[in-house]
Specification:
The structure is a homodimer. Chain A has 7 helices and 12 strands. By secondary structure, chain A is an alpha/beta fold. In chain A, the strands form 3 sheets. In chain A, strands 4-10-9-7-5-11-12 form a 7-stranded mixed barrel. The first copy, chain A, has a two-stranded antiparallel sheet with strand order 2-3. In chain A, strand 11 and strand 12 form a beta hairpin. The longest helix of chain A is centred in the last third of the chain and has 21 residues. Chains A, B: This is Cyclase.
Chain lengths: 290, 290
């Protein structure tokens, strides 16, 4: 009997391992071209072609040049962006860029109020369902704004790209974000490595003080803005690889973000639980037939 | 008895899972600054500071602008770089950028001949020891040239940066690389996704025809040049994440390469064997005490 169950356990474990091996990739970065959005006044991405065709020396040759601000398209805000002496892009340890991802969905609230700021209550409601926000995770705030990208007016609330302030110093930008109280709560009560958003700004568009940026970055937490395909990220269980261009002393950089979904083989936790379950079943059956 | 062994199995599996979880990261990208090397004639990286200090509106603010060619520093050569109609940077599937890594060491031969080109024999010698080059792996060629980076003369064999050819059309560059026969052999006999090198050129410096580039890229295999820290990559067993900046229609791009060493948690195969072993031990013990 023990032998038969051993074979059963063996088969179950092998099956679970093989199943977990099959992850699917989610690309969470927008491509860079002349339509790539940056916050008003930040600038543009420009690609100029060096060669694209046959040359005297080669049957085919392509190469290009580019110019861009650090903070454009899907980009990382290093903590130094808003906080003196904090990490620049090339200081961020890899272990803070390859980590667990969680997603907090505020898209229904943002539909009603385009300047909605995520609250402490939103975070506590999330934890009520999913448990505590894991240590050293990258927290994504899903606003639904990705659906508007790259429509400048819908996405940023203004077609202006020369300034984000009007003559009275009021913000022209409208977009949902993270309220400063929620940012402060995260810094004081949880241990995240970064905060990402599928909109133009970690802060709500109407917060011209950039308080959420400042609070997070003072605590050496990085930001990621203009995250793509956040509608497809599950609220928990994904692993994320957010690898920025390694700009020496950069305050920000283009970042390529890939999430691994559907039972990433690298998800030790999922593996642990699968193994636990199988062993648990075996334990119960063994006890029954003892 | 069965119960006691169940607990044993449970403990063993949990231990193996927790052990496998501990990988270490290897950063295989150089930082971008004014010393970043590009092949002679390709150009320079320039960072210009927008703000770096207190401003009227913020206690601290940093942001910068940059200009650069695609093919500088640690960068990917998309197949379209040298082959008409082949993949550009944003066409490369993620599954070809996150994969197994192998390393072929030609550093001793490059010490003797700075224009050494890896041969078919080098590849066959490697396979003699390590087995067949795995399908869909990224193959790194370790020349030892990383030790010279960013010393232009030692690394590229010339201090010229305006051209790589002299008046007679002969290459000024000296650096080890991959011989075209080895490139052709890989295309015809193996199934790699990309070829990386810790030098300025996939081809040997003296091959001004860029034949290895052309042969590989015609087969939609990408290249990576100026790979950092290749001395620390094991010959087999690492997993690599090579995530390029997503330039629309790019022929190349800055790429951040991270290798996971020492029992990556994502190594499903290692996990499978660990689980197999534990279950095997249990099976034998069960049979003994039946």
């Amino acid at each position: 009997m023990a032998c038969r169950f051993s074979v059963l356990v063996l088969l179950c474990v092998v099956t679970s391992v093989l199943t977990l091996e099959k992850g699917t990739f989610l690309d969470m970065s927008y491509g860079y071209d002349e339509n790539t959005l940056a916050y008003p006044s930040v600038g543009f991405f420009q690609l100029s072609i060096g060669e694209r065709g046959p040359t005297d020396n080669f049957p085919w040759l392509e190469y290009n040049y580019m110019s861009l601000p650090e903070h454009i398209g899907t980009h990382i805000d290093a903590p130094a962006h808003f906080a003196k002496g904090r990490m620049r892009v090339d200081d961020i340890p890899i272990g803070r860029l390859i980590c667990a991802a969680v997603r907090v969905d505020i898209s229904e609230k943002a539909k009603i109020d385009r300047d909605y700021g995520m609250t402490v209550q939103d975070l506590q409601d999330w934890e009520e369902i999913h448990g505590k926000i894991p240590d050293e995770s990258l927290l994504f705030v899903y606003t639904g704004w990705g659906a508007f990208y790259p429509d400048r007016l819908a996405y940023q609330g203004t077609t202006r790209n020369d300034t984000y302030l009007d003559e009275q110093g009021e913000s022209l930008v409208h977009s949902p974000g993270v309220g400063p109280e929620a940012g402060t709560w995260l810094v004081q009560n949880r241990n995240i490595v970064g905060l990402g958003i599928d909109g133009p700004n970690l802060d709500c568009g109407q917060n011209e003080e950039f308080m959420t940026h400042r609070v997070l970055m003072e605590a050496d937490i990085y930001g990621i803005e203009n995250v793509a395909n956040l509608d497809q990220l599950p609220n928990t269980g994904a692993k994320v690889y957010a690898l920025p261009m390694k700009i020496v002393d950069g305050s920000g950089a283009p970042v390529r973000i890939i999430a691994m979904l559907d039972g990433d083989s690298s998800s030790g936790t999922a593996m642990l639980w699968a193994t636990f379950s199988v062993c648990g079943v075996f334990l119960v059956i063994s006890l029954m037939f003892q």
